[in-house]
Amino acid sequence: MKMRVRQMSCLTPTLRPSEEPPVSPPFARPRELAVTVETSLPAALPSHAIEVDVGVALPVAFGGLRQVLRACEAAAPQVVHTLSRAHPSEWNRLFPGAIDGVPDLGDLALTPSERRLHRESEQMFWVLNVAAKAIVETLRASGRPLVLHGAGECDLVSLRAVMRAAEWSRLEGLHGTLLFTGWNVRRPHGAESFESRRQAYLDALCDRMRAPRVPTPGPVSSRALEAPVDLEGRYLQVAVDAAQAPETRVAAAILAIRSCFFTTNYEGAMLAAEQGLSVLAANTDAALASRVVQAWETLDTGFATPAIEIDRASLGDVEELKALFARSMGVVHVYTGAHDAAMEAFGRGLACRIPPELVARLHMFRALTLTKRFGQLPNARTEVAAGLAALERSTSPDRALQEGWLRNVCALTWFLERKLDMALVEEKQAMRCVGDLHDASATHLKINLISNASYLQETARQFGDAISTWRRFEKISESWGVNFAKHHRYRLAGLELAAGERDAAVAHFTEAFANADALGDSFHRQVIAAELGRLFLDEQQPAVAVDWFARAEEHARAIGDPLKTAESLAGQAVAAGRTDWSEAVRCAEASTTWPKQTEALKAALAQGDAKAVHEALPRARTKLNRPFDPVNLY
Q1: Domain range annotation of the chain
Q2: Which element (helix H / strand E) includes 149?
Q3: pTM to 2 decimals?
Q4: E strand map for 98-175
Q5: Which CATH class is domain 521-631?
Q6: What is the mean pLDDT of each run of 10 residues along the chain (634 residues)?
């Protein structure tokens, strides 16, 4: 499907003098960006619109967004070229190989973590934010409306970038029009088990963009498959291709799941899992599993990471492959808030005839879901016990690692019940399990265990011990990257502040800010600057506080975050003794990402009380991790 970028004339009828003027159509030029969602093509489109077909046959991440960005480049080439040169690593993720000789995004920003059921992706925040900025700046430079056709068939990852652009435009006070058509049309390839979540996501998109919801779903299109431009697209296309050999489809489905994990493409991962399970169900050949291994070796690039443990070693017999697909579906359900469905998926994996190590891993995921999502801590420990019981039958070299992960989850349950002595016992046992192991997954667990030990000591208010434990990372390696150093220095500073070591804390907060600066990371620069502003404001050092809040505002605007901009403006006003909150209020009213925090700040501003505003400003913490909700859908 080719992109369309063309001008259209407005079909507005001429009025006779005696007639009342009609109600302005939804695409009339508003005082701010107006977002309209249509189920079909309106009779009239806005004049001189940038029109783009964003529909895709397969839910490949960035499929629709790439079309939008190409249209932006045609409409405002200098804007897009400047932005791509300023963010080459992100641009290369959108357009593989577009810019030579730049760092891989994986060297700069963090991914989700499957073992910890942690869905936050710093990488995808950077990518989608750059894309959103390109859209906003194109609308500003061109002064033209943007019409996105085939919106209901667009991949959700791309729509999240457009959602981000809508909020950013409100912060900027950008006048313009954003029109979606075909919102209820479904693509020919979609995950059946994800259909209800997709509809909920489309409703959430409308809410975040302040557009009325429209009925969904509607008809299924006959859109043809597009040529893949990256590995994810290639793998998904092979997975759905009935003409391919069964083993090739299964291998491609597993590889597609791994790729979709990193692009936070939940619908694509579910589709791949469904396709893989369907192929396995339709083929009873006992030799299929061995052929899957051969197909994998042909398709795989050799990539492996503990962020998601899907590699050559993950493959096994047909029952193990079924369990792998069930596990992957469970993880996606957790990430998308369908927690009951996640437990059912992990349970389906346990129903397969699989080795005890895989049984233990699935019990670990069930325990973690019960802990983090349901808060059912005794039930979680029952799952841990079941996993440990399974491991008693194991003679695999993998046994100790699986036990370590189970005990790590058990420690978390005791920690959440504030039974710190019990938590410490489990952490020590977990460390004994992996102390002599040095593979990537074991190292991943060791990092978690050191961190958790420090958190236990912090909770017990043993700040000196927490600091000593945390500084063990400095002894493990001198070659941690800048991104790790950013998080390490921030937590060290937070612990020092809690311990009363104020000067050391400020120095390390400042180092963390410098690390973020070296990465071009405005998200965390904003966080750290705002919290330093609050720290100096609390210490009645208004001039220094104003300086840090001004930096926080600069970076909040750089990432297009209305709430953070409002907080930073409010902090500057309080520190400078000003009582004009109007710009802070305007920015807060533009926010749709964090309703609870936004309402709290707006309530403080509405009081006109500097003390209330002061109390609403963010304080320093001991962990830098923050949700990337500006690009998340729930």
Answers
A1: 35-209, 228-354, 521-631
A2: strand 146-149
A3: 0.93
A4: 146-149
A5: mainly alpha
A6: 33 30 36 88 93 98 98 98 97 96 93 96 98 97 97 98 98 95 96 95 96 91 95 98 98 98 98 98 93 97 92 95 98 97 98 98 98 98 98 95 97 97 97 91 93 96 97 80 94 98 98 97 98 98 98 98 98 96 97 96 94 96 97 92
